[in-house]
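Contributing new records

If you add data, match the layout below exactly. Sequence lines come first and carry their own label; structure lines follow with theirs. Keep one chain per record. Anything else will be rejected by the validation script.
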Amino acid sequence: MKLLENNARGVYNISYGNAIKYAEIIDLLLNKLEHKPIVIYNELSEYLYDHVLANIKLKSHGWRPKITLDKGLSLAINNILK
């Protein structure tokens, strides 16, 4: 809501606060899944492989995470599998 109140514009990454590579997120997801999908990296995924997400812009508006990335991924997976 603070973003709406502050008329914030642009793209905001929602993250726990530590920069993390997409590849690390994929690894976290794979470790939580019973059935391991095959991950194929192509030119686009190579480009994404080295990118990181950080929440600096969100924090500048007073936002703080309530759960860790690991916990959030577990909650999301459990919710999808219901």
